[in-house]
Design a protein that fits this description.
heterodimer; A: about 250 residues; alpha+beta; Fumarate Reductase Iron-sulfur Protein, Chain B, domain 2; 9 helices; 7 strands; about 35% helix; B: about 220 residues; about 0% strand
């Protein structure tokens, strides 16, 4: 496949630290290959900046194959950019046209303070996971494969929820800055399976209260999250979280 | 009781409060719609309906207090959620505001339509409820008097349209909040929630228009 090149203007957010005042900076980039990924375009820009003696733009990334959840920024107003079900690292420059101005901003939410430029502190999501506790799976000699029966459609749903990579795009895009798609997915992947059911109620209550403590907002059922989720996770998992929380609050059986 | 207070204070607890009070207010609206549609059968039927309601005696003020409480809980919780969400969103807005999908006119404007409905209800109560308590006119006379004023006709039609927008998101949203979401039912749920909102609002708008077009409807 032949790749052509485009000239673009990048309008990118620069911010020195969590309390520093940030602003946009314009950079004109020439001859960007449409075959390069979005992060490669940023690499090219950073190299040019470094050569000029300007500090490169800080951005998060790791696997660059769409499965680790490290990367993420808001491109032209959409978390992870214009392609559906695509992480920022898997977005390619062929999604843009010659002469385009691309506006790049960090994920914004009170729960995600900016560390530097496009890097935000998403450790709140880790704290929410920790609040959910853990599942004990006994190791040792394997039991019979059919001793725990899980219907195929339940396994599929649990896998759909488990596809969440914890990137935080749901909270970043949510008009109310609520990471409920994230929590819904994490609660669902465990609540659907036998190993996770024992603690499903307390898990839901603890994770939601941790979310509240970390300064996130409340779900308004606006459904923006499922439209920006790079893993295409559905809000039916938020509905399951709502059910689990209802059970956990009113029917705790303790 | 501490668990109950803790639940009500949590983000999901507030959502349940919104959903439950919203559902009850919707239920009231439905009964209000059915009751008011007696207007289509003329003065006698409408006044008889009002008379039946008043004959409930002590239950009327009890029901009123309950309804006001539900209404104010809905309003106060809604405002608290709005303030909390604004704080969570942070002071720095996105440079580019887009809708990547999902948001509707209704969902985007809940707080504004809510505030408008609040003002509308104050006007509505001032028009009918408080007047009815002090004046000797029958309810049909009061309705005719108010809705024959072009200003009020406009206010009522705007109020109803805003209410329709609010319910178009609210009804579906409360089901989602209670965890009712299944691919098998989602499409019919969406249609039914819109249809119920549309039918209720159409009846109210028709009542308003009826009195503009046919001023003698309630004069008997």
């Amino acid at each position: 496949m032949s790749s052509k090149t485009i000239n673009i203007i990048v309008k990118i957010w620069r911010q020195n630290g969590p309390h520093a005042k940030g602003s946009f900076e314009d950079h004109a980039l020439k001859d960007i290959s449409t075959g390069s990924s979005f992060l490669e375009m940023l690499d090219v820009m950073n190299e040019a900046l470094a050569n000029k003696g300007i500090e490169p733009i800080a951005f998060d990334h790791d696997c660059r194959e769409g499965i680790c959840g490290m990367c993420g920024a808001v491109v032209n107003g959409t978390a992870h950019g214009p392609e559906k079900e695509t992480t920022l690292c898997q977005l390619h420059m062929r999604s843009f046209k010659d002469g385009d101005t691309i506006i790049i901003e960090p994920f914004r939410a009170t729960g995600f303070p900016v560390v530097k430029d496009l890097i935000v502190d998403r450790s709140a999501l880790d704290r929410i996971i920790q609040a959910g506790g853990f599942v004990s799976v006994n190791s040792g000699s394997p039991q019979d494969a059919n001793s725990i029966l899980i219907p195929q459609h339940i396994a599929e749903q649990a896998m759909d929820a488990a596809a969440c990579i914890g990137c935080g795009a749901c909270a970043a895009a949510c008009p109310n800055a609520a990471p409920m798609l994230f929590i819904g997915a994490k609660i669902s992947q465990l609540a659907l399976l036998p190993q996770g059911q024992h603690e499903a109620k307390t898990r839901a209550v603890n994770m939601v209260s941790c979310m509240d403590e970390n300064g996130f907002g409340n779900c308004g059922n606006e459904r923006v999250c499922e439209n920006v989720c790079p893993k295409g996770i559905s809000i039916r998992h938020i509905a399951r979280m709502n059910r689990e929380y209802l059970k956990g609050s009113f029917f705790r059986d303790e | 009781m501490s668990w109950f207070i803790q639940t009500c204070r949590s983000s999901l607890g507030k959502k349940y409060i919104m959903a439950l009070t919203g559902f009850l207010l919707g239920g009231f609206l439905l009964v209000h719609t059915i009751g008011n549609s007696t207007i289509f059968w003329g003065r006698e039927a409408f006044n008889a309906y009002a008379h039946h309601l008043h004959s409930l005696g002590i239950f009327v003020p009890i029901f009123e207090i309950g309804l006001y409480s539900i209404f104010f809980i809905h309003v106060i919780t809604g405002v608290l959620l709005w303030l909390q969400n604004r704080k969570a969103r942070g002071p720095q807005k996105y440079e580019v505001q887009t809708n990547p999908g999902g948001r509707t006119w209704g969902s985007q404007t809940m707080i504004y339509t809510g505030a408008t409905i609040f003002v509308f209800i104050l006007i509505h109560l001032a028009n009918f409820h408080f007047v009815e308590k002090t004046e000797v006119l029958t309810i049909s006379d009061i309705v005719t008097k108010v809705l024959n004023n072009p200003g009020f006709t406009l206010i009522y039609i705007i109020g109803m349209s805003v209410l329709a927008l609010h319910i178009s998101h609210g009804f579906w949203s409360l089901l989602q909040t209670f965890g009712i979401n299944d691919p098998q039912y989602n499409a019919p749920i969406r249609v039914v929630t819109w249809a119920v909102a549309a039918i209720m609002i159409t009846v109210f708008v028709l009542i308003t228009l009826l009195l503009v077009v046919s001023q003698n409807q309630l004069l008997g």
